[in-house]
Amino acid sequence: MAIRKRNGRASSYQVYWNNPFTGKRESASFPTLAEARKEDSLIQHRLKYDRESFRPEEDENISTGGTVREVVALYLSAKRFSDKNLRTILEHLKHVHAVFGNREVSSLEKRDFVKFISDEAERGVKTTTSHRRLTILRAALSWAADSEFIESNPMQGMKLPRGQHERIAPPTPAEVSAILAVAKGHVYRAVMLGIFLGVRIGPTELFRLKWEDVDFERRTIRVWSAAKNKNMPFRDVPIRENLLEEMKVWGRSDVEAGCEFIIHFKGKQIDSMKSAWRDTKKAAGITRRMRPYDLRHAFATYALDNDADLKSVAEIMGHSNPTMILTHYQHTSESSRRAAIESFPDIMPSCAQAMCPKK
User: Fold this and answer.
1) Are 171 and 302 in contact (CB under 8 A)?
2) Which of 252, 273, 250 shows the shortest CA–CA distance to 262?
3) Are residues 135 and 250 in the same domain?
4) 276-305: per-residue pLDDT in tens?
5) 332 to 194, 297, 304: CA distances (angstroms)
6) Are 305 and 197 in a shared domain?
7) H helices of the chain, where?
8) DSSP letters along 105-142, please?
């Protein structure tokens, strides 16, 4: 598969590939190189993860509604997801296509999806994962119905069970110290900013931060919010004094090197640090499960544990609803739990012997 440019045509960029079943050359044309590259990426992933989508249908099996596999392929082609999102979506769709791929959409019923969740659970798949897979399918079917490729969405109005989110305890102060003692470069900076600013760890917020977003005089950093909070396009987060001094040192070094992003690897912006995080955890002697995102959880937990205002914590973290903090982030400390126990009025009898049964 490849991309070629054909001058003098409205859609001058053509993506072409060989069908793995027929061996014939197939192609699709686009007006821009960006669109062509996304289609090329989609074809590559289909060839690797969903080769069946290239299998020609026999005439007698073709219907106006189409199969789930056909409808999903149209949906993916129309939506033009980023390469990273597309890889994740296709990984989930492998399991969906194994069950529904060759089924006509018109033959599907709600009980089919209930059975899918039940069968997945028997194989040890978490309900949250099954929910994610069917959510992708529902989005594709909804798009197809709106686009009039199918008569109706068989999942319309269906409430999918979400399951329980896995609760992972945030890193303790001792664990954070152990990580910082061995962390290098971009991992060290990511840990410092994640634990002290409460930003979303990843390309949506933390890895987008630039030096131009930092106001050293006001001691704030402008965080451009993730797309999930459209009512808050950005937020100005205060920087604590000890972190500010560290950032000044980083800034001087990066300005000299011409680095615009605060989190970078050899001067280039990153979009993931899974491998570096795994190696850092190992070097710190931490064996339990702990994700970079748990640094954000730690920020919320320890802020509230030290009597920070709930609304302020929510605003700093970019949440429009403070209840999100209590639902997803707060893991109370032992000291907080002990304080709750000790807060009960002292009604113990003066002599414990009085509570013993008489002989």
Assistant:
1) no
2) 250
3) no
4) 999 999 999 999 999 999 999 999 988 888
5) 19, 11, 9
6) yes
7) 33-49, 68-79, 83-100, 110-122, 127-146, 173-182, 185-197, 241-257, 274-283, 294-305, 310-317, 323-324, 334-342
8) GGG--HHHHHHHHHHHHHTT--HHHHHHHHHHHHHHHH
Based on the domain organization, do 269 and 329 belong to the same domain? yes
205 and 133: one domain? no
Assess if residue 87 is contained within a domain.
Answer: yes
Number of domains in the chain: 2
pLDDT tens-digit series, residues 306-335 = 888 889 999 999 988 888 777 776 555 566
Distance CA 328, CA 202 (A): 18
Taking alpha carbons only, the member of 318, 293, 275 closest to residue 201 is: 293
Please say whether the beta carbons of 53 and 27 come within 8 A: no
- Encode pLDDT of 126-143 as tens digits: 888 999 999 999 999 999
Does 202 map to a domain?
Answer: yes
> What is the spatial distance between Cα 300 and Cα 169, in angstroms, rounded to a whole number?
12
344 contact partners, CB below 8 Å, separation of at least 6:
none
Euclidean distance between CA atoms 106 and 61, whole angstroms: 13
Distances (CA, A) of 309 to 182, 191, 302, 317, 359: 33, 23, 12, 12, 54
